[in-house]
Design brief:
By secondary structure, the protein is mainly alpha-helical. The chain has helices spanning 6-18, 23-30, 46-60, 65-72, 79-83, and strands at 3-5, 43-45. α1 (6-18) runs parallel beside α3.
């Protein structure tokens, strides 16, 4: 089975809320695992990511929702990627 870090799932839920989807419905898709959204070391099954994306696709009827989500992410928020800019040492 494949897994997705909770930070990705949390970011996706937040992004989908900003797109107009109800928080309660998004949390219902995660079932009992929704309580782990703020646990940085928790890994969600990739099927949770797929369920959220499928729900977003059917509700928003927006082409390329995954691309839009990816564009909404800021590199500085993602661990080692955000720890340094190209050519700059980590601080």
């Amino acid at each position: 089975m494949f897994y997705v870090n909770s930070q990705i799932i949390r970011s996706l839920v937040y992004f989908l809320q900003k797109q107009g989807l109800e928080k309660e419905q998004l949390h219902a898709l995660l079932a009992e695992r929704r309580c782990y959204l703020n646990e940085t070391s928790y890994r969600f099954p990739v099927s949770d990511y797929e369920s959220l994306m499928h729900y977003a696709d059917t509700q928003l009827k927006q082409e390329h929702i995954g691309l839009l989500f990816g564009q909404s992410l800021k590199a500085q928020n993602w661990g080692a990627i955000g720890a340094c800019r190209l050519g700059e040492p980590k601080s």
